[in-house]
């Protein structure tokens, strides 16, 4: 029988800060601009990336200082996890919060941080930097996740 690992043994609330951070699969989807429908509250993702997102690696270029540089950057915390329905269904935090398993392409499962890109589950090669898009044009970039 295979040994169980921390994300199978612990709840999100029981994880250390280091374990919590390692749950991020590096997809980059939460770093995309989102639009909320004022009528029904539906959240729509766009293919427009935050100015700090490295669109190849799908990692923040300045993670420690991101809140200072991008004031509306959202920090995922355990206290707010119930409010993060807007996270994509493939998000590791959402999956674990909903009692699901991490997918085979997750770096903690595969041991390979690039597996998510090869599986097509990251935004790598699929988005444009916000500097290239006028704010009034965001609606033209709405995308829908498949799978």
Automatic annotation (TrEMBL):
Top-level taxon of the source organism: Bacteria
InterPro entries membership: Puta_zinc/iron-chelating_dom, UCP006173
Pfam family name, one: CxxCxxCC
HAMAP family in the record: UPF0260
Similarity-based family: Belongs to the UPF0260 family.
PANTHER family: UPF0260 PROTEIN YCGN (PTHR37421:SF1)
Protein name per Swiss-Prot or TrEMBL: UPF0260 protein ACFOEB_17400
The organism of origin for this protein: Gilvimarinus japonicus
């Amino acid at each position: 029988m295979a040994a169980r690992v921390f994300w199978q043994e612990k709840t999100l609330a029981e994880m250390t800060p280091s374990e919590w951070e390692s749950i991020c699969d590096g997809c980059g989807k939460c770093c995309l601009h989102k639009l909320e429908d004022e009528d029904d509250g539906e959240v729509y993702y766009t293919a427009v990336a935050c100015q700090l997102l490295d669109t190849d690696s799908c990692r923040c270029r300045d993670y420690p200082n991101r809140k200072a540089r991008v004031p509306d950057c959202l920090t995922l915390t355990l206290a707010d996890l119930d409010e993060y329905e807007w996270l994509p269904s493939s998000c590791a935090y959402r999956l674990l919060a909903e009692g699901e398993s991490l997918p085979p392409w997750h770096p903690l499962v595969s041991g390979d941080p690039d597996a998510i890109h090869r599986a097509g589950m990251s935004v790598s090669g699929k988005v444009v930097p916000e500097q290239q898009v006028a704010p009034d044009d965001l609606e033209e970039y709405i995308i829908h996740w498949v799978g």
